Amino acid sequence: MRNYKIEIRWAFIFIGSLLLWMLLERLAGLHDEHIDMHQYLTNLYAIPAILLYVFALLDKRKHFYNGEMSYKQGFISGLIITLIVTVFSPLTQLLVSNVITPDYFTNVIEYSLESGYYSSMAEAKAQFNLENYIIQSTVGAFIMGLVTTAIVAIFTRKKSTTKMV
Asked: How far apart are CA 38 and CA 2, in angstroms?
């Protein structure tokens, strides 16, 4: 447990940032009056998400590996963060859907029908519901976390600068 203190901390920072992002989206009207822009602007969260992984792996390199870290060590660290975020994804989605923006599904269903994205209420409801979003957020957290980890670990690795004589 002690070996993974940094990963646990960064996983919860990541979860907190995601909840804050969802709150900001709701306050900006992206879950109601500007819902037409939601599908585009929500993807901007990728920027802070990637930065959080960079900061997490740099933190691990500096404070656990004494300034040196291999790709494998960075990848494992990022994978642990990803697994924690993935495990908490259903709870995170429940908080978003029930506390932060409880009217989102109603609003997005209405918008998808008005815009012609879906032609029937049944189709829209099949897509936009808590169960489906829990599945999507859990699978998405794992896949995106894995991809982000694989890439960020390349840029945060650092070999020893001391030469053996």
From this structure: 40
The pLDDT value recorded for residue 125 is 97
Compute the distance between CA of residue 145 and CA of residue 79 in angstroms, rounded to an integer.
7
Within the chain, where are the H helices? 5-27, 35-41, 46-63, 71-95, 104-114, 121-127, 130-156
**Are the C-beta atoms of 25 and 37 separated by less than 8 Å?**
no
Token pair recorded at residue 135:
């599945």
Distance (Å, whole) CA 93 – CA 137: 7
Rounded distance between C-alpha atoms, residue 49 and residue 163, angstroms: 36
163 is a domain residue: no
User: Which amino acid would we find at residue 140?
Assistant: G
Q: Is residue 164 part of a domain?
A: no
Closest to 38 measured CA to CA, from 108, 143, 127: 108
Output the pTM of the full model: 0.93
- The range of the structural domain enclosing residue 61 comes to 2-156
The residue with tokens 């900001």 is 24
Out of 58-67, 92-101, 156-165, least confident range? 156-165
